[in-house]
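Q: Two folds, back to back.
A: First:
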Amino acid sequence: MSAVWVMVCDAARARLFEIRSDDPTWHAIGTFDHAESRSKTSELTGDHLGQRSSQGGGVHHSALAPASSPKETHKAHFGHSLATMLDQALRSKRFDRWVLVAPPHFLGMLRSELTLELQKHLAATVDHDLLHLDVQDLMARLKGSVPDPGDESEIVVRRSERHAH
């Protein structure tokens, strides 16, 4: 039996669905939550940027500032953990192809974490935030992007879709 997985995510949450060749129903197989990615930057650091020091001068962080904010670091960590989980599932032959749905910024971040094997099995990407939709609306919105799990034709057709609103 072949299966297609659909991951719908943003930088803090992800929902994972499976569609099997013997059943066209979208089965929810996992949800992932990364609360740190939703936190305010000030909650992630003990240091308050721009606060005056006891010597009276402003605190300057230009030369010592990290390359990315703590919030971006947490988003990258979440993306890495999702990619690792997907890679392990692919190696265990739990799915044959998959679709990735995420807002543009997180989509780019997550794609940079994908192994070559995950990239080979990626059937489509949709760069839009659809996490808020229920499963019926997701099925309708992604109808043209999700391959039929019973279709054994050669895998990868990559496409990125932008939905006009």
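A: Second:
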Amino acid sequence: MQWIAVSNIKGGVGKSTIALSLAHWLAQKGYTVAVVDDDRNRTVSKWQARAAMNPNSEQPAFKIYPFEEIGKAEGCDYGIVDTAASVSDETIKEVTEFANIVLIPCTPDIDALTATQETADQVIANGGTYAILLNDCPRASKRENQDIAEAIADGEYELISQFVRHGIGIKRASLAGKTVEQMKGTQRLPWLDFNAAFQEFSTNYLEV
């Protein structure tokens, strides 16, 4: 079993959306997947409740457990932990020791960049493996997106080359208890980015 922690010391960078989307992507590939909700906001668990109540939402092909029931995830091919924001250095150390890899979401702004670099530094200091995913990138701000990407690359950090665009479909999917792939028309476009990013992540960082 491989464990993936989705973590950043800053909140609001899309951890829960990425955890759910990655779980969906891996399940589509035929793997058994469990998402463990360790976020104090319980975003993943609330999404699961909305999915169960929405007759137009396909039920997820992966399991979701609160952190207290993490043992139930044992035996799956992949376990994905959606960690809390504003975690301490000690928590990052524990996450690094536990997970095979830490996936670090980063939005294209200076505060998120600084927090992302600090998170990656902690993972590195504890001998872990990580990859950074640039997420929620406005299509009208290509220069800013590229500047953040170049800053990450200049620091010799591990960056997934595929960005994930900003899209209203991500928020609406969350509110409806759907995956981004289930959205229609242009609201589904961010899924194309997720698909390419996860393919790159899987090829370069996962044992498949």
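Q: And?
A: The mean pLDDT is 94.
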